[in-house]
Amino acid sequence: MTKFLPFINSDRTIVRWMTIVFSVVLGAAIWEAVGWSFNQSIMAPLFGNGDDHPGTLPKLYNYLFDDEEYVLSLIQSIQLFTTGFVLALLSAIPFGIVMARLAMLRVALESYILGLYVTPMIALIPFILSILGFDFWPKVLVVFLFAFFPILYNTLEGARSVKPELLEVARSFRSSEWGIWKDILIPYTLPYALTGIRQASGRALVGMVAAEFFLSTSGLGEELITASRNFDMAGVLATILVITGLGISFMRIAGAFEQRYAKWRGLDR
Amino acid sequence: MSEIASEGNETRIEISGVGKRYGNLQVFKDVNLTFNEREIVTIVGPSGCGKTTLLRCIDGLLPVSEGTIAIDGQTITEPREGVSMVFQHFGLFPWKTVRHNVGYGLKLAGAPKTEIDEKVPYYTKLVGLEGFEDSYPYQLSGGMQQRCGLARALAMEPSVLLMDEPFAAVDAQTREILQFELLNIWSMRPMTMIFVTHSIEEAVLMGDRVVVLRGRPSSVFEIIDVNLPAPRDRSTLSHPRFSELREHVWGTLMDEARAAEFELN
Fold first, then answer.
1. Using one digit for the tens of pLDDT, what is the confidence trace for A200-231?
2. Residues in Cβ contact with A224 at an 8 Å cutoff, skipping those fewer than 6 apart
3. A184 vs B: CB within 8 A
4. CA A189 to CA A93: how far, in whole Å?
5. Which domains does chain B have, with CATH numbers?
6. Rounded to an integer, what distance in angstroms lies between the CA atom of residue B189 and that of residue B195?
7. Beta B209-214 vs B40-44: how paired, if at all?
8. Which of A163, A166, A172 to probe by mutation at the B interface, max B CB count within 10 Å?
9. ipTM
């Protein structure tokens, strides 16, 4: 192979970076070409010319640095996301571990959990709307529901696979129940929970936008709807880029935690 | 070893009429044994004879089905202070460094920080893990991991040390090194040690007395006074009495193994 194809070592930093830059430039060029070849109410190019082809990137810049209202919407969305997500995290992890410790509880609730894990949460939105109305908290509930089950499911899987040998060691050294949690259940389950958290961060983002669409419109969801009603495609695409950026950031943060706390897992087994 | 053992022959642990059953499966029955202060008793038997189960009952990890086990006159119902166990599977916490694994029991027992800071380095050094305090278990070889497990048990300064096939999972050379190091550590601070193994050589080498379990359900078939000169070291392995005892136990257990094999066929 190497005789005919130049061997490019993709592990080298410079090669990697150049590949990434090339891929981004190519993607942008395709976007630009498509944007120019359509009516501006269907598709906006990245750069545009400001008149009949308004650019997505200038719009994005304008949103983030010149439009106070938009920044407030962004903050509102982040608040919604964070509140729902943190509540999901704080409840799903302890709940998952408790269920792993109490077999009866797990047996009783397992089918509900599996059912809700696979239910598209978006289907519950009308229900939430009719019961709870349009406030901030119903929206939080939507984000919460999107995030809760992936975290719970993964935490439960982790806590169930805790090695019985370690529990035996803890008993032999006369550990208290809290000691078992602190020394075994939590550290063992954490990497699994973090996998759930990473999955949940993507789902919660969907929940955030859905809640802002279907309950009282607010935040980035409202910006998206407004721009789309005005046929402002550059605005729609710019907001989508913002949401994508948020999603990538949340995933990265969760991924970093996963790396940090799963270190011991590396060669263990 | 024998002269130290003869100093203290006060009974520490008394096992009377003990049996263990899982549903219909009787693992062992009618086991009567005593263990004295400052003595190493090895328990040997074919795999599946319940020797490890018996050890777990002594530690209070498993309840007995019949009879009683008492340490210093107190019946065992749960793990008790002053008794530490070293596990075949090491049982180290993969997310804790050597330092924190060794200090695990002390911390649970609520030992003050000064005591932990003093004992952890001492026992880490005693088992030869100096310089590896900040390593994680996965960075250590099997032998080193078991050194860590041993240090964790010793740091509790137990008066009863339970060894559950501790060297079964390490390679042959390491096993031999660890056996002599353990004997050496024991002679510095002798306690009651119950050592379960499936290796006949190990049982004879380590024990002041060897308890042979056999039968189905198993029970104590024979208790042998080893009477090999102390200190035991590599030269013990070529001592005529060592070979004699090894062959004796070997014969006893081979009958059993052969019978079991025919029974299965």
1. 999 999 999 999 988 888 899 999 999 989 88
2. A209, A213, A236, A239, A240
3. yes
4. 9
5. 2-82+160-264 (3.40.50.300), 91-157 (no CATH)
6. 16
7. parallel
8. A172
9. 0.89
